[in-house]
Amino acid sequence: MVMNADVILTSLINLSDHQKAQQAMRFFKTAKGEYGEGDKFLGISMPILRQQVKHFNAVSLDDLCCLLANSYHEVRMFALLAMVQQFKRASGKRHFNQQQRQAIYSAYMQYCDHINNWDLVDCSAYWIVGPYLQDSDCQPLLYWAKTGHLWQRRIAMVSCYHFIRQGQFTIALEICELLLHDKHDLIQKAVGWMLREIGNRDRQTEIEFLNNHYQSMPRTMLRYAIEKFDEDLRQGYLKGTI
Fold first, then answer.
1. Which residues of the chain have pLDDT under 70?
2. Of 129, 125, 109, which is closest to residue 158 (Cα–Cα)?
3. Which of 18, 170, 205, 241 has its CB surrounded by the most CB atoms within 10 Å?
């Protein structure tokens, strides 16, 4: 079977659903002035996209880069899901391939301007960026966290979920602190989410961070961070009585 960008694009377009596309455009805030302004949708659900990734399971990285540059959201999502699968295969103990891992990571960062909505970031960053930087310098994450680029900042934060799952909190807490006063709610939610994930593994570490910063952090960030706390403790943070 031929598996190139044109064949995959045709297959995805044939699965389009106009009504679902209109719903997705509203959900992902594509109106003028919103964070997803101008994004285009085909109206394909995630389960169907994942089926397509399994079906087209031998796509070249060059073709995936072509798809990642496509204007349709679901086409970019397909490319990212496929890149994640290829990165996982290249990271396996039996078939570890650092050259392939590096190529996927480099392509991901080269095309990061096209990873331009929260779901695109969240399905891929901690599966590719985090693992690639696991045994190397995490300075790129600190650099992206300081940029004016919304999606690079979210990539920096969400990539830390990989380290958090390994019980390594240092880089995540450092980036949380860098983004503590970020004005965008998608960054505030990401920081709160990562703090909550730290707390799921080490509640005391999260509490120590919150006690130092909760009075100055945005309300959205705080609410996400304390979502799993007992009600009395939640109210203490929300009312500023801790």
1. 1-2
2. 125
3. 205
Of 158, 211, 216, the residue nearest 182 (C-alpha) = 216
Q: Are residues 235 and 141 in the same domain?
A: yes
State both tokens at 201.
Answer: 């593994």
Query: What is each CA distance from 94 to 89, 100, 120, 129, in whole angstroms?
Result: 9, 14, 29, 21
Dist CA 191 CA 168 (whole Å): 16
Q: Which of 112, 134, 156 is the last residue of a domain?
A: 134
**Domain carrying residue 43:** 1-134
Q: Are residues 123 and 159 in the same domain?
A: no
Give CA angle at 13 (12, 15), nearest 5°.
Answer: 65
Looking at the whole model, is its pTM more than 0.70? Answer: yes
CB 105 within 8 A of CB 94: no
